[in-house]
Amino acid sequence: MASSFFAARAPSNKNTVKHVVDPALQPWVEKYRPHTIDEVSAQEHTVTVLRKALTSTNLPHMLFYGPPGTGKTSTILALARQLFGPDNFKNRVLELNASDERGISIVRDKIKNFARQTPRAETVASDGKKYPCPPYKIIILDEADSMTQDAQGALRRIMETYARITRFCLVCNYVTRIIEPLASRCSKFRFTPLDSESAALRLSHIAQEERVPVNASVIQALITNSSGDLRRAITYLQSASRLSMSSDPPTPILPGDIQEIAGVVPDTVVNDFARTLGVDIEDGMDVDEAPQRTKGGYDVVRQKVKHIIREGYSASQILIQLHDLIVLHPTLDGRAKSACALVFAEADKALCDGADEELWILEVGLRCHKAIST
After folding, report:
1. Strands 125-126 and 129-130, how do they pair?
2. Which family does it belong to (predicted)?
């Protein structure tokens, strides 16, 4: 019985086969992640410094900070691959997401055990290429600003003790949440939101590789609705491609499709609401229409608000887009803009506290109408 039991438990050869992911089934964010630091978009200063560090193979502890989707994690992973090569990457690089593993026990056990291991001296010649493979390891702590204060304090001593054989790279969105003793031990690299030109080039390249027909207006919609987050823009593009291919024949991708996927209120709805409040909007419609629509006052605004809410649009998203439209409007005077900004702030606080969405959008509409029309 015992022998048959252990025979049944013995691992089969099938379990030892390495799992290979079909590239066609990969998310585009992973499929088109940069493999070298030269492929990183729009972070010229950081890439220049890291390129010099790559030639000398002498890296300091590093702190990457900036908004999401700007290439922080992709940059350090690409740098690590160029240093160690594919064969030694798993042995020399430990990547942890601190938003999941952020307690002091992780620092004392997992991070410390990996940091104290002396890397083997290897001559690296994998896949026909030669890699520098310097005599140290790299520990990448993603979302490091989610680590507790105690965990960051414990990490400080480990960084000092094992600096000869282990280098740390902290990746975070908010550098102010990293304790000063930890931040002072790292070289800081600030990642900025991608500019429109760099984002457009990258999105156009991905669309061309995936054979997705998109025009300039769609690319602009992706950039606008992602707010400098390239990862979000690529995800929107992939979702729009799936939506386009779901019909036979495939339907062309339109800017409105991107707005629908992004969950923003269509520009036509926001512009129509702004006209009801008395804002002069020039988007190809009859300019004489606006004065006629604002004559009704309370009844017209209430009817428009009821229609918008019944369409299921998010009140917070309406506030964001209406705020940008009014505050950045070229012809409205400063007094009207300041009055509108005040009611936007009050509405945002009320909605965060759980107030009724329809009532507060109506409040915003009426007070903005009064500020603009007087």
Report:
1. antiparallel
2. Belongs to the activator 1 small subunits family.
- What sign for the dihedral angle of Cα 136, 29, 64, 219? positive
Comma-separated ranges of CATH 3.40.50.300 domains in the chain: 28-190
- CATH 1.10.8.60 positions along the chain are 196-262
Residues of the chain with CATH 1.20.272.10: 267-282+295-373
Residue with tokens 């008395």: 278
Tokens linked to 148: 């507790």
Look at the pTM and tell me if it is higher than 0.85: no
Q: pLDDT-based confidence at 133, cuts 50/70/90?
A: confident
Average pLDDT, the chain: 86
Third-level CATH fold of 28-190: Rossmann fold (3.40.50)
Residue 33 is encoded by which pair of tokens?
Answer: 């992640």
The answer regarding whether domain 267-282+295-373 maps to CATH 1.10.540.10 reads: no
Q: Are strands 93-97 and 187-190 parallel, antiparallel or unpaired?
A: unpaired
Fold for 196-262, please state it: Helicase, Ruva Protein; domain 3 (1.10.8)
Task: Respond yes or no on whether the N-terminal peptide bond of residue 132 is cis (omega within 30° of 0).
Answer: no
Written as one string, the DSSP assignment of 73-103 is HHHHHHHHHHHHHHHHHHHHEEEEETTTS-S
Q: Per residue in 8-67, pLDDT tens?
A: 444 444 444 444 566 667 899 999 999 899 899 889 889 999 998 888 878 999 999 999
Angle (CA) 136-141-147 rounded to 5° is 135
Residues 360 and 336: their CA atoms lie apart, in Å, by 19
Q: What is the DSSP letter of 175?
A: G
- Give the three-class secondary structure for 169: strand
The listed range with the strongest mean pLDDT (242-246, 276-280, 343-347, 370-374) is 343-347
Q: Which of 86, 111, 88 is nearest to 98 (CA)?
A: 111
Whole-number Å distance between alpha carbons of 320 and 334: 19
